[in-house]
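Predict structure. Chain length: 77.
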Amino acid sequence: MKKALYDLKQAPRAELDKIGWYLVTSGFQTSNAKFSISMKKIDCGIVIIVIYVDELIIIGDSDVNISDLKKTFEAKV
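Prediction complete.
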């Protein structure tokens, strides 16, 4: 029973590591203060991704850049 509970605690961390690795290999820079904040300069704008619990919050100054990033994520899933 303890092993099963331990595995449940490790699953979210493994997913966060997988997402973080993908973001870094895609050119995003992880914040020094928080691992859950990543940013990337795209074209003439910037896109910021915040990972909070089980949500991905995407913020940017261009709707086109945000929608392109969302399409990329949907293709990867």
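Summary: Strands lie at 29-30, 37-42, 45-52, 55-60.
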